[in-house]
């Protein structure tokens, strides 16, 4: 075995869904992929929730376990497909009774609890729009997204509501209903009990006609400037969720599947809820936080066969598992059911791929996609060789290319035209040919921003990549300033804005600093107002202030004081130059700098 290539034989008794890459690509069409789904009864359209739940519950698979839920105290409960169908019908009826209908936006601010799945799928049944929020967000990001998304309903817990929403409620006049999961709703004015309402609702619900182009999901993704962008996805996206989970994750209906991504992010929705349930698998749901031994124990005790996780998690496992125990792990925890491991969210370093082979007996299959693509676009497949460090090759039905880039790192557009780089090994902007079913249909209320993401018949991803002579793609970095930290996309503007709300801060610039575990950590450079001293106490105060406002996933981990932040002549802080100085990289063109470099 070398780092150049790893070949994994198929698991005995399991035929890979994609056994011949070239032939599958040649024969594949999205129309045939659409025909693999049932569609609503009577030809009344296509609905994600029906494909994920009701078509299984209505067949002979209603008694199969859909969710295997592990509580923080390690208690295990199960929900069958039939029961999930009843629960989601009840919630759809709750929404209808509250006057919430087609196109209204329902937000969830929850961890991995059974009620989350009820709310998500019940919302989709009602032809309403589901927008998940990351429960580790601070009050500022939560309020901003609720406001931008025109939230009509929020489903959360009493604790999360008190800490992140209650004080902001007056600024959210459109938020008509807050449903509290678990105890506490009676103590909170202006809230309703999720549990009581769903228990009292009928368990029969007829899904209304749903067009494949009806809006289904709203995912907010960070940008380098301005407010977060709300990427719009439609019910037709379920076609791509189903097909790509079969090819990139090799899902079979008999699998026990665990996706560790938080449901507040697109991975936790597309491949943590929708895709696995459409395949009829048993889905492991863990309410607990990351702990190496807990995770190994879940993999073994729950007989997980397909595991989808993040590079940060794998690197944490690599660091926290004593070397002398590594080769005993499969035996100690009984990992014999595990047959396929995949990773997403940030680049997967070659060492992690090889570690999986050496310790788990399985290589880790990296793949690449974005919030905007809605599904996996490039992947390493079960029956194909792996080139550690590579994203893999495009999925069937996906056309990818590397475009010539300009000085700003983005694709060079001349008279509306771009240039596809045919020569292998040349870095450029990764681009995709539009047309797959889960491609985002717009940015909410921002047509101009959406149109700027396309040029000359290509979707411009903003990621830099290169393609080798055999067609494998390799991630190089972001063309803009968005920071990938522990699998999360962090917009520097959002962090800078929060810091500048502190009375001591005059200006801030935020970058990502490479970190061996998280990939990158958020680092802020801060200029203080006159009369404020750059003391260690002030640094601690700013770190705590940002953490309260933004939450631990978004707030900076490091702060450096700099009274002379580099700015363009128009006054914009040059993050590129901050990054170059921090990492000892060439500073590049300084012609737009306000003063001496």
From TrEMBL:
Query: Would you say which domain of life the source belongs to?
Result: Bacteria
Q: Where are the transmembrane segments?
A: none
State the top-level EC class: ligase
Note the PROSITE patterns from the entry.
AMP_BINDING (PS00455)
Q: InterPro entries recorded for this chain?
A: AMP-bd_C, AMP-bd_C_sf, AMP-binding_CS, AMP-dep_synth/lig_dom, ANL_N_sf
* The enzyme's E.C. designation: 6.2.1.1
Name any GO cellular component annotation.
cytosol
Sequence ranges assigned to domain AMP-dependent synthetase/ligase in this UniProt record? 57-444
Instruction: List, in alphabetical order, the Gene Ontology terms for molecular function in this entry.
Output: acetate-CoA ligase activity; ATP binding
Record flagged with keyword Cytoplasm = no
Q: What SUPFAM superfamilies does the record point to? A: Acetyl-CoA synthetase-like
- UniProt KW Plastid keyword: no
The chain positions of domain AMP-binding enzyme C-terminal read 494-572
Per UniProt, the keywords (alphabetical) are: Acetylation, ATP-binding, Ligase, Nucleotide-binding
Give one Pfam hit by family name: AMP-binding
NCBIfam families the UniProt entry points to: PRK04319.1 (NF003313)
**Name the UniProt record assigns to this protein:** acetate--CoA ligase
Gene symbol of the encoding locus:
acsA
């Amino acid at each position: 075995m070398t780092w150049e290539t790893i070949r994994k034989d198929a698991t005995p008794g399991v035929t890979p869904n994609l056994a011949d890459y070239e032939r599958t690509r040649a024969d594949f069409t999205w129309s045939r992929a659409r025909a693999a789904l049932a569609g609503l009864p009577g030809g009344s359209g296509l609905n994600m929730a029906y494909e994920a739940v009701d078509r299984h519950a209505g067949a002979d698979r209603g008694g199969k376990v859909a969710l295997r839920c592990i509580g923080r105290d390690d208690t295990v409960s199960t929900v069958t497909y039939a029961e999930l169908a009843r629960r989601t019908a009840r919630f759809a009826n709750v929404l209808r009774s509250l006057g919430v209908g087609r196109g209204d936006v329902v937000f969830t601010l929850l961890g991995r609890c059974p009620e989350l799945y009820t709310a998500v799928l019940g919302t989709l049944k009602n032809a309403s729009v589901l927008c998940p929020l990351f429960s580790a967000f601070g009050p500022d990001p939560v309020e901003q997204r609720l406001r931008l998304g025109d939230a009509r309903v929020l489903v959360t817990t009493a604790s999360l509501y008190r800490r992140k929403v209650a004080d902001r409620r007056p600024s959210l006049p459109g938020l008509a209903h807050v449903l509290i999961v678990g105890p506490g709703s009676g103590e909170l004015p202006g809230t309703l009990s999720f549990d009581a309402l769903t228990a009292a609702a009928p368990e029969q619900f007829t899904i209304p006609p749903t067009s494949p182009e009806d809006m289904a999901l709203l995912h907010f993704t960070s940008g380098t400037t301005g407010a977060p962008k709300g990427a719009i996805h439609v019910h037709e996206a379920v076609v791509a969720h189903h097909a790509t989970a079969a090819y990139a994750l090799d899902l079979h209906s008999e699998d026990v599947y665990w996706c560790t991504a938080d449901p507040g992010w697109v991975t936790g929705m597309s491949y943590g809820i929708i895709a696995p349930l459409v395949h009829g698998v048993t889905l492991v749901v863990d309410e607990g936080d990351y702990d190496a031994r807990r995770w190994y124990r879940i993999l073994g005790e729950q007989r997980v066969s397909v595991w989808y996780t993040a590079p940060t998690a794998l690197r944490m496992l690599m660091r926290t598992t004593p070397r002398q125990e590594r080769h005993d792990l499969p035996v100690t925890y009984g990992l014999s059911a595990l047959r396929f491991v995949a990773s997403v969210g940030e680049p997967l370093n070659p060492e992690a791929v090889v570690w999986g082979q050496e310790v788990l007996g399985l290589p880790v299959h990296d793949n690449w996609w974005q919030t905007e693509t809605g599904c996996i676009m490039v992947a390493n497949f079960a029956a194909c060789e792996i080139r550690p460090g590579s994203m893999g090759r495009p999925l069937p039905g996906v056309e990818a290319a590397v475009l010539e880039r300009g000085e700003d790192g983005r694709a060079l557009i001349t008279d509306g035209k771009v240039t596809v780089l045919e020569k292998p090994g040349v870095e450029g902007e990764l681009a995709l040919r539009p047309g797959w079913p889960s491609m985002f249909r717009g940015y909410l209320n921002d047509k101009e921003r959406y149109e700027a993401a396309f040029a000359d018949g290509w979707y411009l991803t903003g990621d830099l990549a290169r393609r080798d002579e055999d067609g494998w793609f390799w991630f190089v970095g972001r063309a803009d300033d968005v920071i990938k930290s522990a699998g999360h996309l962090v917009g520097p503007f959002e962090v800078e804005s929060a810091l500048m709300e502190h009375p001591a801060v005059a200006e801030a610039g935020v970058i990502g600093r490479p970190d061996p575990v998280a990939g990158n950590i958020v680092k802020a450079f801060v200029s203080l107002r006159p009369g404020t001293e750059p003391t260690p106490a002030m640094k601690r105060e700013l770190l705590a202030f940002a953490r309260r406002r933004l939450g631990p996933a978004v707030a900076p981990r490091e702060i450096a004081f700099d009274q002379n932040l580099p700015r363009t002549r128009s006054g914009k802080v040059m993050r590129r130059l901050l990054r170059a100085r921090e990492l000892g990289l060439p500073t590049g063109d300084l012609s737009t700098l306000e003063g001496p470099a």
